[in-house]
Amino acid sequence: MPIDQHGDTKLQGLSLRGLPKISLHDHLDGGVRPETIIELGDEIGLELPESDGTALADWFAHKSDSGSLVEYLKTFDLTTAVMQTPEGLTRVAREFVEDLAADGVIYGEVRWAPEQHLTRGLSLEEAVDAVQTGIEEGEEAAEDRGHDIRVGQLITAMRHTDRSLEIAKLAVSWRERGAVGFDIAGPEDGFLPSRHRAAFDYLASEFFPTTVHAGEAAGLESIRSAIIDGRALRLGHGVRIAQDLDIISRAGDEVLVQFGDLARWVRDREITLELSPSSNLQTGAVAAWGEELGDHPFDLLYQLGFSVTVNVDNRTMSRTSLTRELALLVDAFEYDLDDLETFQLNAAAGAFLPIEEREELIELIAEGFER
Length: 371
Hints:
By secondary structure, the protein is of the alpha/beta class. The longest helix is centred in the middle third of the chain and has 21 residues, at 124-144. The chain has one domain: Metal-dependent hydrolases (TIM Barrel, Alpha-Beta Barrel). It has helices at 34-44, 53-64, 69-74, 76-81, 86-102, 124-144, 164-173, 197-205, 220-228, 261-268, 277-282, 298-303, 315-318, 322-333, 337-350, 355-370, and strands at residues 10-11, 14-15, 21-27, 105-112, 150-158, 179-185, 211-214, 234-237, 245-251, 254-259, 272-275, 308-310. Helices cover 45% and strands 17% of the residues. It holds the Pfam family A_deaminase. InterPro entries: A_deaminase_dom, Ado/ade_deaminase, Metal_Hydrolase.
């Protein structure tokens, strides 16, 4: 099935880009437009590997395709460098929301770590305020173009630093001003969520929802800690939960699987998996199963009833969009519109919103796919 240069394709006569979508796992510093990096970088004298937008986009895609999360994360040095001022943060956030709207997203959650944006004198509060200003400007710009979109912040702490409790309190203080949840990110292997138990205890006491990066660069112990220590309602990636599944036999399309206790808990409690197909290949998260998208355990998890969702992770690094990720899955697993609708309904159900607002999203998705 051909996918055009913008990642779009037609399925059953419909453009995937025009379908209503939910984006749950989308990093702000992973979705900066290359042209914006060049313009903002020029203002601060930042040395860049390329001076042309297309060439810089190629550079990001090449550097990110390393098979290592640690190497993948190094590319963020350039994007975060231009996000250290109120003007830079606001512009990046505004364009981020505009890009979501152009991708057909009707609700998105953008995650980012304020502690990484303080090198030019901003306070944590000022950084969050600048991003929120950009989000609201982007929502207004999208509305002017006839697209309704809402975007909430996932305030994120870096798992290899010691500021998680401080960042958790920051997130809760912004809960009525744009923050919808909390996350920890950064190098996963060797940095279990249990290191941040005090932050997660505080968030639980405030009834503030958490999603935790787990099961991407580390295995079942990381996922277990995310659920027990982090009280995670969603797993950032979570792809390695498939390591807790023992395939007993295959007969055609029939697969007999024995569940481990952790995998059964994640499935039965409908803990949302924020899967990011292209990124999972780039970082080596699915290396145990193969090197092609068709080897990704996405379909196995879906067929077994896990609450799978489709995400981009980092648009710039993976040179992708949510539309493109859906098109790639259709090509790999022969999904139809009903399957794609299920992924969006799973995402709507997992959104960090009140039940009434999640039900509204579900109605919008159903209407959009029916049309």
